[in-house]
Amino acid sequence: MAQQKLWWQHGIIYQIYPRSFHDTNADGIGDLPGIIQHLDYLQDLGVDGIWLSPINPSPDRDFGYDVSDYNAIDPKFGTMQDFDTLLTEAHQRGIHIILDLVLNHTSDLHPWFQESLKSRENPYHDWYLWHDPAPDGDYPNNWISIFGGPAWEYNRELNQYYYHMFTPQQPDLNWRNPQVRQEMLDIFRFWLDRGVDGFRLDVFNEYFKDKDFRNNPRKPGIHLLPFDRYEHIYDTSQPEMFPLLKEIRGIVDSYPERYVVGETFLADAVHARLYIGPDLLHAGFDYGYAKSPWGARSFGNAIAFWDALHGEEAWPNYFLNNHDTPRSSVRYVTGENDARLKLLAGMHLTVRGTPYLYYGEEIGMRDTRYRRRELQDPVGKRYWPLNKGRDGCRSPMQWDASPHAGFSSAQPWLRSNPDYPQRNVQAQSEDPHSLYHFYKQLIQLRRENPALYAGALDLLPLENELVLVYKRTAAEQQALIALNFSNREQEVSVPAPEAKVPENESQAWQLLFAGNDLVNSTFSEGNVHLPPYGVAILIA
Ligand code: GLC
Fold first, then answer.
1. Section 80-89 average pLDDT
2. Which atom of ligand 1 lies closest to the CA of 323?
3. Domains with residue ranges and CATH for the chain
């Protein structure tokens, strides 16, 4: 592993859902000037990069994940000039910008799709996955959309179906068409030339489908959702993705210090790892950690597994939250107490890998509960009440106790969580014991200590089912982290640090963080006391 400090590897990346961060023009929707206004806040928090959920023009059937122009900024978010200002201002603060590229599908209102609808002979027709009906007029095959129903939508004029993995308003592109491929690769160049630092590739392993459109085999067992009744071997993860990723990486690497992280779709961790490498993706996401049940053993196993999969050749990343899943504050906590979130932060910011934070995580924002008639997300609208959709984790950022949480002076696109008068950035910055200060202190420690941002990871055998202990070892420093997953006090025995030079065998640890507080005391070996949900960080 290179010794050079790389921003995407050793730093922290903060995901912003732009609709929900800060609205400056009173239309109820967040915007780029709103992000610019808070760059000082993000710099002070200590983040190295921002991943922006899509900001391209979109009819918002899936809120930006249905793009109608890849080389422009949606006017509801601002102008290209605002974007350039955001880049410049972020870079001045040492903050990198990562764009979300949604290249598997476009919006049905994208001019390419509108053209492709005109006739079978139209030059854009083959840009999408059109297929004749089966001889009996039925769907071309048994593929299902993950957002519900068959993945094929019929068009009477053309007497053909088109394929969509997501909503019918998100037709999948035909990546086997050389013009599509060229056009897509030019999108990377367009944004790299403007100065962006990297990309998050939305459902990238979905780009190619089986060229013969074979039926997916049935999966054994009983599954509630039709989508889950099939093995998705023909509608996702085709081998053509590997040469394409190499080409993408070649483009990205022709610019200095750029980064590309992929969202693998429907793949397990082992499979997701296959796409990461020196000539593939820099990193990829996996839900194993975020979906871990509460507990030292299960989180330890999730970390050990993902870490080992990466080995020394690759760098893991970790997220507890994103725009697609209920927040950790409601997955692991009932009520308002933040003790468990502090413990999770202690883990998240000390594992080997790039920690991703999701806006509002640093103040423990809770999911907002919306009534059915308030729903915006197509997933919630379709599956209510089985699945209430993803609006809950997308509610407006809670800046202060003023109306609409200081997010907007108008009614926001999604109602603010009613807890905002108590839970907001301003209140927590004034309280030294808040979750916000906890995150800030840990981020600071991570930034200052090479063992924490760069060290190898070794889990220590569990002596106590309730406490997770691991070591981080860098060339110049070692760290030991102990995390108490229980609501009772625990003691953990800490071995002496490993001697770095033989003649200096009795080195001592420095205890940097104990329980809930920054401390600075020396500690040779013996028992460390952990209060309920307490964190200890020692370095030597
Ligand atoms: C990804 C996005 C999700 C979106 C889907 C379709 O999974 O994270 O929000 O709905 O792709 O683009």
1. 98
2. 9
3. 7-106+177-322+337-356 (3.20.20.80), 111-163 (3.90.400.10), 455-539 (2.60.40.1180)
